[in-house]
UniProtKB/TrEMBL annotation, chain A:
SUPFAM superfamilies: RNA-binding domain, RBD. Signal peptide: none annotated. This is RNA-binding protein 48. As a component of the minor spliceosome, involved in the splicing of U12-type introns in pre-mRNAs. Component of the minor spliceosome. Within this complex, interacts with ARMC7 and PRPF8/PRP8.
TrEMBL record, chain B:
The lineage of its organism: Eukaryota, Metazoa, Chordata, Craniata, Vertebrata. Coiled coil: none annotated. Pfam families: Arm (PF00514). PANTHER family: ARMADILLO REPEAT-CONTAINING PROTEIN 7 (PTHR46263). This is Armadillo repeat-containing protein 7 isoform X2. InterPro entries: ARM-like (IPR011989), ARM-type_fold (IPR016024), Armadillo (IPR000225), ARMC7 (IPR042462). The gene is ARMC7. It comes from Equus przewalskii (Przewalski's horse). PROSITE patterns: ARM_REPEAT (PS50176). ARM repeats lie at residues 57-99. SUPFAM superfamilies: ARM repeat.
Length: 367, 198
């Protein structure tokens, strides 16, 4: 089949639809079944070949459908291209590569006028200039993206340094550089238990010629949320934190609270620190009760002077917790207390004290 | 198929890539290796993954896989390298770890995609004006590109032409032309080609 490819518009290997892979391990199965294929910048192209178009004179509709993904520069039918009976083959050239990529992803295997479209790239239609431009744009894109990440990481570095994490960050970098040297020398890389890779990632690829240069590049970020998966901009920093915690730098462990600049927590960090909010509330409540019990144990007088706010006040001051869900919870508790107070005066004493103590406690920081 | 690693959904991108690398190293199944390598090579397309890939030494994994007997693995590995080698840090790593001879070897592969990826990788590793790495514009490579530039395969022809125009000096090209007239070349064209007459 590939030998026909010599003429333009012949059938190439990369036009042929591969069979979908059905033997993938479950953890790496995607949402859609896909073939095993690697896409490089060589393969991708502004030119798309569309096979399986029912021969019902629907060229305009086809082009209109594809034009949803971006401006189309030209299109034509490929009459010489081998096609199944009653189907046609079209070539569509997009103005830019990204539109073509999107169109291919969305339109492949879509039904159209009763037939299933097979969309693939057709880089063999490119001119030398178009190929050259394509390669240059790819290079520029990568340079731009990594430069932005560097810039972002530098900025964030300044912010976090400002928040007195400066020293340990320098230590961290020197330690990882040290680790990398160690990793090169020792084939197992598990020699020193205080280095992050050996504890966290004993499973990175080691070859006989391994020279780990990642130490220099550890501070290069990958914090763009470009592919929008569960990794967000705090990824780099939180990875550091995760490793650092494992490094058991005790003095720094407490100071590495998520700085104010960071809002979200990556899942990796979440594994270490996540506790459901209700559990925390109950935890604090329990601790307050214990403290109070201890306090009253040592106190001789149990006069109402000890109580922060008297249980018999008719209304409880409403404090805004600056959080909708906490406010809702607080409102519910207040309502319940009002009901209980009105029915039984004595028992709610503790609860009320808790409530007021909890209200006088500093605003909870949202997890 | 392959045993399922215990991947906590909270672990995120790095953990997933790590699981892929682990499976690649541990599995006995060629199919699984191909699938995983293709997966990694596709991840190499997105710059946001580069720090993880470096951290997990996937670049070395790709370079090592170039020596595999399985042609599909070679194709995917060079594809992965092609995807990530235009990044400055990745480029330095490849150059420093002696990846260039391995990539040049791929030029003689019978697999069309492998050759195309190899040519593109060589281009991205070079700096214009043949400044960076002398191996990348050595005589055998230039001669090879000359042959490719006359091929009937449009994609190959285009790439070779760009290489000769942007990364070789005119004198190198002229020298390669004169050499061709006299010596037998050691780098065959990929199987998809009918032999070309100079």
């Amino acid at each position: 089949m590939a030998s026909n490819g010599r003429e333009l518009g012949g059938v190439f290997d990369h036009h042929v639809q591969r069979a979908v892979c059905d033997t993938r391990a479950k953890y790496r199965e995607g949402r859609r079944p896909r073939a095993v294929k690697v896409y490089t910048i060589n393969l991708e192209s502004r030119y798309l070949l569309i096979q399986g178009v029912p021969a019902v004179g629907a060229m305009k509709e086809l082009v209109a459908r594809f034009a949803l993904y971006g401006a189309i520069e030209q299109y034509n039918a490929l009459d010489e291209y081998p096609a199944e009976d009653f189907t046609e083959v079209y070539l569509i050239k997009f103005m830019n590569l990204q539109s073509a990529r999107t169109a291919k992803r969305k339109m492949d295997e879509q039904s159209f006028f009763g037939g299933l479209l097979h969309v693939c790239y057709a880089p063999e239609f490119e001119t030398v200039e178009e190929t050259r431009k394509k390669l240059q744009e790819r290079k520029a894109y990568i340079a731009r993206t990594t430069k932005n990440k560097d810039h972002y990481m530098t900025q964030k570095k300044l912010v976090t340094e400002h928040k007195n994490t400066k020293n340990f960050r320098q230590d961290f970098h020197s330690e990882t550089s040290g680790f990398c040297a160690a990793a090169v020398n020792t084939s197992t890389g598990n020699s020193d238990p205080c280095f992050p890779y050996s504890c966290e990632l004993p499973l990175c690829y080691f070859s006989s010629k391994c020279t780990c240069s990642s130490g220099e590049h550890v501070d290069r970020a990958s914090n763009s949320s470009q592919d929008g998966r569960n990794h967000d901009e705090t990824g780099e920093h939180c990875n550091h934190k995760d490793s650092l915690q494992k490094m058991q730098i005790k003095t720094l462990k407490n100071s590495v609270a998520c700085p104010g600049a960071q809002k979200a927590i990556t899942p990796s960090e979440a594994v270490d620190r996540f506790m459901p909010r209700t559990t925390q509330l109950q935890e604090r409540k329990r601790r307050r009760q214990d403290d109070r019990k201890l306090g009253t144990f040592f106190e001789t007088s149990t006069s109402s002077n000890e109580v922060v706010i008297g249980p018999l006040l008719p209304d409880i001051p409403k404090v805004d917790m600056h959080d909708d869900s906490l406010n809702t919870t607080a409102d519910l508790i207040r309502k319940k207390l009002k009901e209980v107070i009105s029915s039984v005066p004595e028992p709610p004493e503790d609860k009320l004290e808790d409530m007021h103590t909890s209200h006088s406690v500093k605003q909870r920081r949202r997890i | 198929m392959a045993q399922k690693p215990k991947v906590d959904p909270h672990v995120g991108r790095l953990g997933y890539l790590q699981a892929l690398v682990t499976e690649f190293q541990e599995t006995e199944s060629e199919d699984a290796k191909e699938q995983v390598l293709a997966n990694l090579a596709n991840f190499a397309y997105d710059p946001s993954n580069y720090q993880y890939l470096r951290q997990l030494q996937v670049l070395d994994l790709f370079l090592d896989s170039l020596s595999e007997e399985n042609e599909t693995l070679v194709e995917f590995a060079i594809g992965g390298l092609c995807n990530l080698c235009s990044d400055k840090a990745n480029k330095e790593h490849i150059l420093q770890t002696g990846g260039v001879p391995l990539i040049i070897n791929c030029l003689s592969s019978p697999n069309e995609e492998t050759v195309l990826s190899a040519v593109t990788t060589i281009m991205y590793l070079s700096s214009p004006g043949s400044g960076s790495h002398p191996e990348l514009t050595a005589m055998p490579v230039v001669q090879c590109m000359l042959r490719f530039s006359l091929s009937a395969n449009t994609r190959l022809r285009n790439l070779a032409q760009i290489f000769l125009e942007e990364f070789c000096s005119p004198s190198q090209v002229a020298e390669a032309r004169s050499w061709r007239a006299h010596s037998a070349l050691g780098i065959p064209l990929p199987k998809t080609e009918a032999p070309q007459q100079p």
